[in-house]
Structures are given as C-alpha cells and as structure tokens.
Amino acid sequence: MQKGRQLKPHIGIYGRRNYGKSSFINSITGQDVAIVSEVAGTTTDPVKKSYEITGFGPVVLIDTAGLDDEGEIGQKRIKKTLDTLSIVDLAILIITQNTFDDFEKKLIKEFEKWDLPFIVVYNKIDAFPPKTDFIKQTEEFLKKKLFLFSTVLKNNIDELLALIKESIPESAYRTPALVGDLIQAGDMVMLITPIDVEAPEGRLILPQVQVIRDVLDHDGVCIVLKEREVDAFLRHTKIKPALAITDSQIFLKANAMIPDDIPLTGFSVLFARYKGPFDEYLKGTPKISDLKDGDRVLLLESCSHHVSCDDIGRVKIPRWISQFTGKKLEFDVIAGLSLLSRPINDYALVIQCGGCMITRKQLFNRLKPAIDAGIPVTNYGMTIAYIQGVYHRAIKPFVKNIEHDYL
Predict the structure, then answer these.
(1) CA of 339: how far to CAs of 10, 83, 90, 147, 369, in Å?
(2) Fewest C-beta in 10 Å: which of 57, 111, 191, 286?
(3) Residue 405 has pLDDT above 50, yes or no
C-alpha cells in the first residue's frame, strides 16, 4: 500500500477477524466509512480513510484484514496487512473476548521491529466484559494500560481521541526546516530551476515549491530563475545570495556559475537531510567509487510518474554511474512503495530519490532493510553531486570538518 501524496499521520487498525476493527473506525470518525459485518473476514485489502481529529488535524486511518485469516487467500491478505506497518505512524491493536496470546504478542514484536508506537484497545466491553486478572496480566506484559472501549456505548470517545493524539509521534506531522536553520531573516536564497522536458506544464515541481515556502516561512527572500539567467542576474544586480540551491542535474553548471564564497547545494540534497538518514547517505555516497563489474544497484523512487526518454532515475543516473565507474553494472528501479523483486542483499548500493511525496517515517523504513544489512545507501542528488565532482560543495552547508570526515 502506497502513501502517495497523503502527507498526513497514518494510523493502522490491527487485530483478529470480527473483533470490531471496522466498527471501531466508524465510531471514531462518526461515519460509516468501513464495511461492518458479522461475517469474519469482511475486510480484505487494507482500506484508507482520511479523517480530521479535532484539535489535532487530518490523519489517515487504515482498516486492515484480520491477521488470523486462513487459507491461501487469507495468507495474502495477512501479508498485505503486515506491509502497512512500514507506512503507519501509529498502530492500534484491537483485542476482545479476554484473549491476548501468541498472536497478539507476535504482532507487538512486529510493531517493535518497525519502532512503531502502539495503543491496545479492549473492544466490545459491553458484550465481553474484561476480567480483572486478564487486564492485570495483559498490562504487565505490555507495560502500558489497556484502553477499554465499546463501539456500541461510545461513552469515552473523547478520551480515546486524546490518547491517539498523545501517542502519534511528533515526527509524523512535524519535520525539520528545509533551509530555515541555514538562513537569517532577510537573507536572499537563489533557486536555480531548469525548465526541461521533465518539468510539469505550468508549474514548479513539489521540492521547489516546498523550498520556496520554507524560505518565506523563515522571512527570507526567494530569487527564482532558470540557469541561463544566473550570470546576468549576479553581474547586473551585484546581489550576493546567502545560499544557492540548484536542480541536481545541472550541478556542474551551477558550480561554475556560483562564486565559491556563496554556499551551493541541490534540492535533492536538501531533501536528503530533511527526510532521509543523512548520516547514512554521507557514509554511503563515496561507496560509488567501490562498485565492481557485475554489481547490482537499486534505485528507489517514492512516486510513480510519466517516464520520459531521458528519465533521471531510469536513464541518466545509471548512465552517469556507469561512465564514472567504468564498470558493467546492473540497475533496478522500483517506483512508489512497491515491494522489491529481489532480496536486498543482491544489491551493492541503494539510491533513494528525494522523497518529496512520502513522509520521513516512510523513507526511513524504506531504507531500513538495506541499512540493517550493511548495504551503502545514498540519494539521487548526492549521487549526482559525487559523480560530477561537486559533492563536497553540495554537502558543505550541512557538514563541519568536511575535508577531514568525508574524503
């Protein structure tokens, strides 16, 4: 399941079949948004629903299939349900009937594997009142309180919503500034934005828009121009920007045009720090030089888009890396949040796009298997900067002791 353009905290609802997960969603939204039936297994594939939590903001609720499903089709449903763990920011485990055993414990281990905060809700207290001993034993295992609830009575819905708001990690809805910590109020920031075949008709791409907004939010001034206007602008205005940001594909041109005393980086490098495991990228990028004949490289795109004849991920980066290394390499491209077709250990390097369409949590989880396996990871912009010989300049605004630490 892909999160796509919905940059809102995602909340997954998990539990066994017929435990009231869909009714639970209907209760907290106040709408019949999930199909409810007495037949176990009514919910098949995960279903998403946007909802506004009063006093907090919009979230996306994900109704999942029961994780005790049976048969071959049931196992496929379970797999799809477990796949959602990599994109959710908060898990809600529904239990009832005084039952909490190996099934629930295994699911909680999965939550912990993904470093996923969770709430355990004992549902249907009107039909299956929880026993005192059961509550005590379960809370001792969880080291947290059960939340007792009834989708029929709904008498503590406000307390439930308050608990959800409290449990959603801040990182799910608040990310660091893109450039705010690099500039002062009144500083001018130059954005070099080529208009080429991949540029959308009549508008700027999302990373450029987000940077403009971040500069304005921090009381800076944006200068937005195409690459062929840079020389004339600097020469005629005598303005010295506090920071220049370029499209990664013209790093070499920008490096030549922007004086050395003006910090220069790329949009994709900004997003590498903004959303990605930047320290891992810093360690992984120089490993491009260590690639050998026959190595396989994985490129991860966070969204699906129209593929042009000179596509950055499918064409340009593979060509540039092959030319830079002089090696015969294999390249795989995975778009969106689709599952890998090969084991992660088949790859010598993983290259992630800027990730403007997904959350920080999603991006970290996307790269976690590679990082855990010790496979170098990097980012589109950092890769381009490295193979074009401007890597140090591109990361210098963010890194101290650059010559010593990142040769």
Answers:
(1) 19, 9, 21, 34, 12
(2) 57
(3) no
For residue 43, which of 8, 72, 68 has the smallest C-alpha distance?
68
Helix (H, G, I), strand (E, B) or coil at 232: helix
Look up tokens 């912009």; give the residue: 381
Gap between the Cα atoms of 295 and 120, Å rounded: 45
- Determine the Cα–Cα distance for residues 22 and 43; give it in Å rounded to an integer: 8
- Is-contact 160 146, C-beta < 8 A? no
3-state secondary structure 18-82: CCCHHHHHHHHHCCCCCCCCCCCCCCCCCEEEEEEECCCEEEEEEECCCCCCCHHHHHHHHHHHH
Residue 341: the pLDDT is: 83
8 A C-beta contact, residue 265 and residue 397 = yes
Mean pLDDT across the chain, nearest whole number?
A: 87
pLDDT at position 310 is 58
pLDDT digits (tens, 9 = 90+) for 302-345: 765 444 445 888 899 999 999 999 999 999 999 876 778 899 99
DSSP 122-187: E--TTTSPPPHHHHHHHHHHHTSPPEE--TTT-TTHHHHHHHHHHHS-GGGT----SSTTT--TT-
- At a CB cut-off of 8 Å and minimum separation 6, what does 305 contact? 335
Measured CA to CA, the distance from residue 350 to residue 327 in angstroms comes to 17
Q: At what angle do helices 317-325 and 380-387 cross, to 10 degrees?
A: 40
DSSP 202: T
What domains can be seen in the chain, in order of their start residue? 10-172 (3.40.50.300), 188-269 (3.40.50.11420), 277-405 (3.40.50.11410)
Provide the edge-to-edge strand list for the sheet that holds 221-225.
221-225, 188-192, 243-246, 264-266
Q: Which amino acid is at 6?
A: Q
Cβ-based neighbour number of residue 294 at 10 Å: 10
Phi, psi of 234 (to 5 degrees): -65, -40
Kindly give the pairing relationship between strand 47-53 and strand 57-63.
Answer: antiparallel
Structure tokens belonging to residue 354: 């800027």
Cα separation, 11 vs 25, in Å, equals: 10
d(C-alpha 240, C-alpha 267), whole Å: 19
